[in-house]
Design brief:
By secondary structure, this protein is of the alpha+beta class. The protein has helices spanning 2-21, 23-43, 134-137, 168-173, 211-216, 242-245, 324-327; strands at residues 61-65, 68-83, 86-93, 102-105, 108-116, 126-127, 146-153, 157-162, 177-183, 196-205, 221-227, 248-251, 255-264, 269-273, 278-283, 290-294, 297-299, 304-310, 315-321, 332-338. Strand 2 and strand 3 (86-93) form a beta hairpin.
Length: 339
């Protein structure tokens, strides 16, 4: 019995000796593996140069001199709370996602300046509302630099804008998207009938800065926002809650106009207002693309429209994309109609 105990003890002591001999190397290898795993996890959550950055929203700078419109925007990193407790370190224009609403008139010349506050990544601006050579006017602005570009807005409509820096999908999906409205010089045929008008934008969110998920995965959230078209209107980010907690408003008998755009970046929107039909629809917001009596309007990624409908009874009207899997992920807002 004593001999067996001695043998076990000897074997145990030998194992401990060997373990101690390799302990330093083993701990180093384990530490290296843990550090690598930690880096891999963090890379899908926070882009290292952006860690600790949360720049406050920056007001849009916009000045008109005749038909020349001077617009200055920032590229910056700002935290956006997509849903309660879900804070996304968004790549944004002016600290908003979607970015600030830009409104110009048909025939205006836009003098656009991008001030890139991002310490590590170049950004750019692609306006869908203009004709220009992208290699000249949609080029990258380097970190901590400014770039100014000039082009004309010759077509009326509701257009997307977005960062066009490669990989474009990463920049759009991380929050660098928005809407520019080019108002038609002769207006819309229904202008004198409209009582309330709002801007509605649909966008998707994916795993943070994860190009594979943005390419192959399903969005974690599909959301609506509104941007203030008139003084006193709400101005929200793309969240699952804002347009449910604080509905848009109208009165019985009002003809309501929505300027809508699906900034994607990937999914189609089937825009629908529950409980009513669209009296008038202008595809891409162009007055010549006029349809009547539509139930749902199909918006491809980047697609826009002006839709108008009349609310005939008091109550709560929900607007959705009729892809209801996306409604379950947040894509719904409310319009509260009172007497």
């Amino acid at each position: 019995m004593m001999k067996k105990m001695g043998l076990k003890t000897l074997v145990g002591l030998s194992a401990i000796t060997l373990l101690l001999a390799g302990c330093g190397q083993g701990q180093q290898e384990v530490s290296q593996v843990q550090a690598k795993e930690k880096q891999q996890v963090e890379s899908t959550q926070v882009f290292e140069p952006h860690e600790g950055i949360n720049e406050k929203p920056t007001p849009l700078e916009m000045e008109r001199k005749g038909t020349d419109v001077y617009v200055k925007m920032t590229a910056q990193i700002t935290d956006i709370e997509i849903a309660p407790g879900n804070v996304y370190k968004a790549w944004t224009f002016n600290g908003e996602a979607p970015g600030p609403l830009v409104v110009v008139n048909e025939g205006d010349t836009i003098h656009f300046t991008l001030d890139n506050h991002d310490p590590a990544i170049p950004h750019s601006m692609d306006f869908h509302a203009v004709h220009t050579a992208p290699s000249k006017n949609f080029i990258d602005v380097m970190p901590n630099e400014e770039g100014t570009f000039t082009y004309s807005a010759d077509n009326p409509g509701v257009f997307m804008y977005h960062c066009g820096t490669n990989p474009v999908l990463t920049h759009i999906a991380n929050g660098m998207h928005g809407v520019i409205i080019v108002k038609p010089k002769d207006g819309y045929p229904t202008d004198n009938e409209v009582d309330q008008e709002y801007v509605i934008i649909q966008n998707e969110w994916y795993k943070y800065n994860d190009l594979k998920d943005m390419t192959d995965g399903n969005p974690t959230a599909v959301v609506f926002s509104t941007k203030a078209l008139h003084d006193g209107q709400p101005n929200t980010n793309g969240t699952t809650t804002d347009l449910k907690d604080e509905p848009l408003t109208a009165k019985v008998g009002d003809k309501v106009r929505f300027y809508i755009n699906n900034v994607g970046p990937n999914e189609v929107s089937s825009f629908h207002v529950v409980g009513t039909l669209f009296d008038d629809v202008y595809i891409d917001g162009n007055p010549v693309n006029h349809f009547e009596g539509m139930q749902t309007i199909m918006l491809p990624a980047s697609g826009g429209a002006v839709v108008e409908f009349t609310v005939k009874e008091a109550g709560t009207y929900t607007f959705v994309t009729h892809q209801f899997n996306h409604v379950e992920k947040g894509a719904a807002g409310l319009l509260e109609v009172t007497e």
